Amino acid sequence: MTKRKGIDVSEQLKDIDWDKVKVDGIQFAMLRIGINSDTDTMKNLRVMFKNVNV
Predict the structure, then answer these.
(1) In a domain, 1, yes or no
(2) What is the pTM of this model?
(3) What's the CA gap between 52 and 54, in Å, rounded?
(4) Which of 3, 15, 26, 39 is the S-S candidate for 21 at Cβ 3.0 to 4.6 Å?
(5) Tell me: the pLDDT tens digits for 2-53?
(6) Domain extent at residue 47
(7) What is the per-residue pLDDT for 9?
(8) Counted domains in the chain
């Protein structure tokens, strides 16, 4: 079994430096998305999807 290093991302973390996360060897992030119409949620979703490397 291969172990991978990941993080659990929540709204309490606010701004995440994804470049630093990558440099620190994090290989994945677990995200829980609750959709609502507030501006911050929509901004965070756009940033998250921009940073997803599939």
Answers:
(1) no
(2) 0.53
(3) 6
(4) 26
(5) 999 998 887 666 778 888 888 999 998 887 766 666 677 777 777 777 766 6
(6) 6-51
(7) 81
(8) 1
